[in-house]
Design goal:
alpha/beta, Leucine-rich repeat, LRR (right-handed beta-alpha superhelix), globular
Length: 100
């Protein structure tokens, strides 16, 4: 394996470890994964169905891949400073899903 591939695998493992640690520290329905270097949102977030605040700012997200639709209690979502070309349509569906 080349050094670049090893470094990338190492970074991925560290990111997963940070996500798991952050999810364990979820307090009062709030989760911050600000600046984790995420390119995708982990489906593990769906296990936090009562999540009310989610900070995914300062990452490298290009899409949300439908992951947010399962977060029916979400009231605050920060997707600022990512690599989105356009806003994910599902963020508008979140409000509709709640019956507002």
């Amino acid at each position: 394996m080349t050094r670049g591939v090893l470094r990338m695998a190492e970074t991925t493992l560290l990111t997963h470890a940070r996500i798991e640690a952050a999810m364990k520290k979820t307090i009062g329905g709030e989760l911050s994964m600000r600046g984790f270097g995420l390119e995708t949102i982990s489906r593990q977030v769906l296990h936090l169905g009562s999540l009310r605040c989610l900070d995914l700012s300062w990452n490298m997200l290009k899409s949300t891949d439908g992951v947010l639709m399962g977060l029916t209690h979400l009231k605050m979502l920060d997707l600022s400073h990512n690599a989105f070309v356009e806003l994910p349509s599902e963020i508008f569906d979140l409000r509709t899903q709640k019956g507002h």
